[in-house]
Each structure stands twice: as C-alpha cells, then as structure tokens.
Amino acid sequence: MRNPDIGILKNILPIYHLSMDEEEIKSYQKLITENMLESYEIVDQMIDQDLQVNYKRTPGYRPTKQENPLNAWYWKTSVEHAEHGKLAGKRIALKDNISLAGVPMMNGSKVLEGFIPQVDATIVTRILDQAGEISGKAVCESFCCDCSSFTSDTGSVLNPYNPAYSAGGSSSGSAVLVATGEVDMAIGCDQTGSIRMPSAWCGILGLKPTWGLVPYTGIFPVDVTLDHVGPMARTSNDLALLLEVIAGSDGLDPRQYSIQKKSYTQDLTAGIEGMHIGIVDEGFNWPISEKDVDQTVLNAAHLLQNAGATIGHLSVPMHRQGIHLANIINTEGTAIQMFRGHALGTSWRGYHQTQLLDSFAKGMKAYANELSAAAKITILTGQYMQQAYHGRYYAKAQNLALKLRNEFDQALRKWDALVMPTVPFKATKLPSEDASLEKQVKLSFGVDTNTGVFNVTGHPALNIPCGYSENGLPVGMMLIGKHGAEDILLKIANTFEKLTDNKYTKPVTTIKMSKQ
Fold first, then answer.
1. Catalytic residue numbers?
2. pLDDT for 311-339, tens place per residue?
3. 29 and 9 in contact (C-beta within 8 Å)?
4. How many CB atoms lie within 10 A of CB 114?
C-alpha cells in the first residue's frame, strides 16, 4: 500500500467540510499508516475471486470496413460451446458492455480500449451451456449514455434501412446485426430504453424484462436501480427462447429478489383471445410525436382485435412525468455510480470486477476529455446536482418512482397489457462530423420519452415492429405488462406476427448506401 502524503489528505478535507491544522493532519497521517492500512495489506496479498470460465475461445479480431459496412461489429470471435442445447444453431451477438473472457471490451469508449475481461458474464455462461454460438461483440454507444448511434469511438452505427439515419442507442450494433440477419439474436442492455429504442428504429423485437429477471453479473452497470439486460431477435420464438436461457437468479446480482422464471416458449402460440389490451393515451400526441408514427401504432393495436383481444383506451396521467424521474435517476446515478465510482460504485453485495475498476480509473485519467458530449453533460449535471442539492432530487425521484409504479400496477389490474409507441418519432438523421455541441446533445437525448418510464417502474416492456413510416423507416409498438408477465407480452407478439404474416420482421437485405 502507498502511504498517503500530506497533500492528498489536505485535498480530501474540503470535500467533507473538514478543517485541520498542520499538526493535526500529520497525526492522522501517522494513524492511517500505522493502524488503518493493515486490512488493505492483507487483502492485497489474497487471491481475488474470479468467476469460472468454462469454454475456450479465440482472441478474435476487429473486422474491416468491407466486412462491417454498417459499423455494427466491434469484435468478432469464435467461442466453444456445449454440443446440444436450446440455442443449438443460433448465432448470437453480445453488446460490448458484457464481459466475454479473453475478448476485448470497449463499451464504446477509448477509456476502456485495450481492456480484456478475465470472466464471463453469467448470461454468457448460460448461452454457451445451451449451445449458443457467440459470434462476437456488437458496438454500443460511449458508456451507454446515448439514445442515438453516433457516439461510439469506433464510429457511427448506421441504420440498415437508410445509413444516413441513426440506428438508435445505446444497443445500436446489437439491433443492426439482428436486423440484417448477421446473427439470429443479440443481447442488449437497457437503462432508459437502450434495447427498445434501437429495436424500434431497426425493425426488430427487443425485450426489456422485469427488473432483476435476468442477472446483470459481469456487465458494465450504469445505475443499479435502472439496469436491465434482455434479448433482441427477429421473431417472438427466438426472443422467448433466448429469454428462457438467460433468465433466473444467479445468487450474485443484488437486483434479483422474488423473481420467478417461466418457460416462455411453452405456451407462446396459445393466442390472445379474451385478453384486454389498453392503449395509454399519454404515450401518444407528445409535442415531439409524429402523426404517421402514432397512427401506425394505433392501427397495429386495433389489429389485435382480429385475434379476439378487447382493445380500449385508458389514461395514466403520471406517465408524462415519468421520463423526468428517469432522467434524474439516470443522470445522477451515472455520474456517481459509474463515473465517480470507477464503473461499479459501492454499497452493493455481489460480484465486483476489480480489474475493470482499475482499467476504468486509469483510462479516465488519460481519455476523459475525449468522452462524448452526452457523457460529459451527464457528468457535469449529475455531479452539480449532487453537490448543490446533496442528492435530494435523486432521492425524491426514487420516492416518486414508487407512486409511478403503483399507477401502472393499478392500470394493469384491469388490462393484460398496455400499448404506446416505443419512440414517438421516426429515426433521426445522423449529425455531420462538424455538428455543433448543441446539435450533438439534442440528438443524444429525448428518444426515451416513452421507454425510460419503465426502467423506473421495472415493468417488462417489449418493442414489436408494426409498420413503416412515410419515409420507409420502421415504427415500433411498445407493449407493457405486469411484473413477471413477459409470457403475456410474448404471446401478443407471436399473435401479431401471425396477423401480419411476419412481414415486419424479415432481415433487411437491401441497404440504401447513399447518404441523402
């Protein structure tokens, strides 16, 4: 252990509103050195507890532009897996904030470039145990701070329907690889909509499960109360299959308690006759909403009547305020847990990646000035609000989140599922390389108006591609269900596929490469 010098201790004093004269601080320096560091010295000599890695893999490689025209791959690799299992023959991409031992993980930022995890995330082991073929890591946005797809330090991820447009974020690469058929399934992570937003803009299915249903162990977190990880696919069957494999407690994730895993494929095709599906009026007609998007989602919802569902309207007034709760929790949680807490933060029991802590801290010292505008404004706002108001608004937002959750729980007592647009507007154009700071920030936020609410409440929410906008870009319909009712949402998705003959979920084969 390095003993603290006087200068370091003096710098700590004002942070905690302390004052000491020279003699007093020297006394504390001696006491710390002689009494407080022994435990650290002993623990430093102990061997860290790593998660077991069960399958061999190649180091892999960064694909060339010719092999990666939409810039969706960060890294390609080949991983051994079980010979037989539920995922046999399925190719899967991992969002690049998920640890895959021996394979680089950048999380969209130069800060982590060169970091190679020593462990497999829990969901990685579960996929490999069920014979899933992990094909590599998909690009994600810089520290997952962005709702668009232009902030990764490896370059913009391009929309497969028109590369002049955003693919959505932050699970941008995962959505594109599924949409183009390069993989059958992908894993995304979601703090305010990062699975569902890119799924909507790339025309695939994406599910944010109930908070805690899928373990987050071995994945780079943002805020423990918002973190979700879930499946992305082109069909409800693949989505249900992947969820069935990755769901369930692992005994290491503090987000998991009182969860109940189900067999999501068992009754997938049972139909929805007799279900009551409610259209949430507050999810439509925002000032930012586009009429063709709202109308496409309304048409899709009413189509479910043809399968025997009852469709009606309801009001959840607090939905309009929910995104503001999500913004506060995400902003201050990201600033304090992730950036101040060297990626993992403190005060939670579970598996901590100590190597990640060191790499992140060292990388921040070297490359913090090169963070995206979205990351910088999150740090500045979050730290300012913590210092100026001592976390009061974060705490108040978490308290109000209980009321918000209760309002949706009340609605879901009457309705089996709720409906609204996933994103109230079409995919936006990617900014030019010389775009102003104001333009970058504007495009980075605001996409999660409807989605972020359900990270706060923890309800499962599923994007279903349900049509195309006036300029040919996909539109997504979001279904919201009771806690633990992913099976209901998947049945509705399966029914919608049958009603539309799967025409909205086929791989994109024709890519417009002109940026106009």
1. 95, 170, 194
2. 999 999 999 999 999 999 999 999 999 99
3. yes
4. 10
